[in-house]
Design goal:
This protein has 533 residues and is an alpha+beta fold. 32% of the residues lie in helices and 20% in strands. The protein has two domains: 3-248 and 512-531, Periplasmic binding protein-like II (D-Maltodextrin-Binding Protein, domain 2); 286-505, Dipeptide-binding Protein, Domain 3 (Dipeptide-binding Protein, domain 3, Roll), CATH 3.10.105.10. Strands 1, 8, 9, 10, 11, 12, 13, 14, 15, 16 and 17 form an eleven-stranded mixed sheet that branches. Strands 4-5-7-6 form a four-stranded antiparallel sheet.
Length: 533
């Protein structure tokens, strides 16, 4: 065995052993370490240009940095990150960024505008799911080299093919997908032109406050504080993430003091911890929704009255007080609360008789039978079970099947499907692009990034036109007016994507932990964390 490889394995084993012994001896986490219980089951790698999942996003948010920062307490206000300043041309198409000097990567290489240029081009050229953050503004593999350029070591110029509201561009450059890589390091680890993809599955090439020490899939991740971080070394010398997929296990270890933060807890465990007095329950509002998708290729489900009937089979109030207490806020309109054009109207409620009447009007007085796919995790599955029970009372038999069916949803190979979305930009366009645009409804178009396409819903043209117009609009008052109209039109269209709850991400944090703050775009930072006595 290679000597360096043997040394690495021995070091990793010693770290894990000392970690386990410290818990056994202390029954509390060390003062200079943050321990997070999480579920790593869906984590496939740590490449910011590939992942699209909350837990992994939080990790790369601390291994890497981005041009723009969106503060957790005011995420609609772009602030300097690796870009210490920027200007926008009069025509609204050219963004010039002054790149911060004196920043080093974990390798010791200096960060320059050339690294930024390479990183943003890489995102577009790979063309994976996160690339939507730039591709949606017109960046393509064929044009990105001419549109994103470093003119010197501290200047980056980004030109957009069309004029968009400038905040949309800035918000995108604050996303985890636009993290900045050490291009020299990845050039050394390029394998057959993969731009470092294989290397980044288990390594980092960032400049963030933490560097990756080790990661064992579905087991353990250790990140060490980067002592040369340009904003100063973090107080937590080490952050450890432990794979604890069961809610009960996370709760027990949190109560015992073996972990500092627990995620993906059941509503029951969250309620118990909430009443304990030793734990703070954080509920961070997001920009996604819990939704029910009805495949419009299906003759029955494409009937507008059938779609409307399902609106009356969701127990909004009952779920609000139980399984969704910590995981969602009742919302039936499409623009997330707090954003321009949002409306707090919730006109629907559980009404079995109303649903039956609509089904009869649609020509299905005796109901029908459909297969219903749902993700078997909290709270999605409990919501699905509630819908199944209510539908049965209206004569609809739903064959509820748990499992990982997202692939079938993306391929339009389903009848009913429910899950939650995770749009990240703090702007109405993020949700509306996915839920309310579908420029080409053919199978061949493969617009798999759009929920509307996945549902085969031919979105009314007036709604789509307004969505695009609002994204281009630079006048805030006019944008708000457009979004108000879209919100109303979407609700009245009996959409194939039925929203019920605005997503909130719940975490339980021990009270001695200070500065661990949930972030609506999944960029929770660890370098702000300290522990009280």
């Amino acid at each position: 065995m290679n000597m360096l490889r043997r040394q690495f394995l021995v070091t990793t084993a010693l770290v894990a052993a000392s970690f386990s012994l410290s818990f056994a001896a202390q029954a509390a986490t060390p003062k200079d370490q943050l321990v997070i219980a999480t579920n790593m089951s869906s984590m496939r790698g740590l490449d910011p240009n590939e992942l699209n999942q909350l837990e992994a996003a939080e990790i790369v948010a601390n291994l890497y940095e981005r041009l723009i920062v969106l503060p957790a307490d005011d995420i609609t206000k772009p602030m300097p990150g690796l870009a210490e300043s920027w200007t926008v041309s009069e025509d609204g198409k050219t963004f010039t960024f002054k790149i911060r000097s004196g920043v080093t990567f974990h390798s010791g290489n200096a960060l320059t505008a050339k690294d930024v240029e390479w990183s943003l081009r890489r995102l577009v050229k790979l063309g994976l799911a996160p690339s939507t953050d730039l591709r949606q503004w017109g960046f393509k593999e064929e044009n990105v080299d001419s549109l994103i350029k470093a003119t010197d070591d501290t200047t980056l110029v980004v030109q957009t093919p069309e004029v968009w509201n400038p905040n949309l561009i800035l918000f995108s450059l604050a996303s985890f997908s636009t993290s900045i890589f050490d291009s020299k390091l990845l050039a050394e680890h390029d394998k057959d032109g993969d731009l470092g993809r294989e290397f980044l599955q288990t390594n980092d090439a960032g400049s963030g406050p933490y560097s990756l020490r080790t990661w064992r899939v579905n087991d353990l991740l250790i990140a060490d504080a980067f002592k040369d971080y340009w904003q100063g070394a973090p107080k937590m010398r080490r952050v450890i993430l432990r794979h604890l997929p069961e809610s009960a296990g996370q709760r027990l270890q949190l109560e015992a003091g073996d972990v500092d933060v627990a995620t993906r807890l059941s509503s029951t465990d969250l309620a118990a911890l909430d009443s304990s007095g030793t734990v703070e329950i954080q509920k961070t509002p997001g920009f996604g929704f819990y939704y029910l998708a009805l495949n419009q290729k299906d003759e029955v489900l494409s009937n507008p009255k059938v779609r409307e009937a399902f609106r009356y089979l969701i127990d909004y109030d009952g779920l609000s007080n139980t399984v969704m207490k910590y995981y969602g806020i009742k919302q039936q309109t499409i623009i997330p609360a707090g954003l321009p054009g949002a409306d707090d109207a919730n006109p629907y409620k559980l009404d079995i008789d109303k649903a039956k009447a609509l089904l009869a009007e649609a020509g299905y007085p005796d109901g029908f039978t459909k297969v219903y796919y749902a993700t078997p995790v909290t709270p999605e599955y409990e919501v699905a079970q509630s819908l199944q029970a209510n539908a049965a009372k209206a004569g609809i038999k739903l064959d509820l099947q748990g499992g990982d069916h997202i692939g079938k949803f993306r391929a339009r190979d389903f009848e009913l499907f429910s899950a939650r979305s995770g749009e990240r930009l703090p702007d109405p366009h993020a949700v509306l692009q996915s839920y309310a645009t579908n420029a080409n409804n053919t199978d061949e178009a493969k617009l798999t990034g759009l929920n509307a396409w996945r549902t085969a819903w031919d979105v009314p043209k007036d709604i789509q036109d307004m969505v695009i117009a609002a994204a281009h609009e630079t006048d805030p008052a006019k944008r708000k007016e457009l979004y108000t109209k879209i919100n109303k039109a979407y609700l009245e269209s009996s959409p194939a994507l039925i929203t019920s709850f605005l997503r909130t991400d719940a975490k339980a944090v021990r009270k001695e932990v200070k500065g661990y703050v949930g972030h609506s775009t999944w960029l929770t930072r660890w370098d702000t964390v300290s522990k009280g006595e």
